[in-house]
Design brief:
Structural component of flagellum, the bacterial motility apparatus. Part of the rod structure of flagellar basal body. InterPro entries: Flag_bb_rod_N (IPR001444), Flagellar_basal_body_rod_CS (IPR019776), Flg_bb/hook_C_dom (IPR010930), FlgB (IPR006300). It is found in: Bacterial flagellum basal body. The protein is an all-alpha fold. It has a domain of 86 residues. The chain has 4 helices and no strands.
């Protein structure tokens, strides 16, 4: 029997979300610190693409190179105005990032709850 990779993936995403929320909180806490530069973590997709190699197991599957082309490039988003103090933290963007983390965590949790209920219904008969 193969291990449940979905649980491992969900766990890794929750770890990444916690780390991102910590960085966002640090940015918000330092919003008035002179010279502070806003930080962010590498996207989860980039982290996973480095640690998990996608392979084509069937000739009709999409090749891994095609997956990268499906991402939309964001233009101008995330660029903050640098203040006279040298601080470039934009509170509006940080709060948007924070709400994105909460939405992702909620969705991840709901998917895992549903998957767990499905597994329980199958094993209970």
């Amino acid at each position: 029997m193969q291990p449940m990779q979905l649980f491992n993936l969900a766990f890794r995403q929750n770890e990444w979300l916690a780390q991102r929320q910590s960085v966002i909180s640090s940015n918000i806490a330092n919003a008035n610190t002179p010279g502070y530069k806003a930080k962010d973590v590498e996207s989860f997709e980039d982290v996973m693409s480095k640690s998990v190699r996608m392979t084509v197991t069937d000739g009709q599957h999409m090749a891994p190179a095609d997956i990268g082309n499906l991402r939309q490039q964001e233009s101008g988003f995330g660029e903050a105005e640098v203040l006279v103090s040298g601080n470039d933290v934009n509170l509006e963007q940080e709060f948007l990032k924070s709400s994105e983390v909460v939405r992702s965590y909620t969705m991840n949790t709901q998917i895992m709850k549903t998957f767990d209920r499905m597994l329980q219904s199958v094993t209970k008969g």
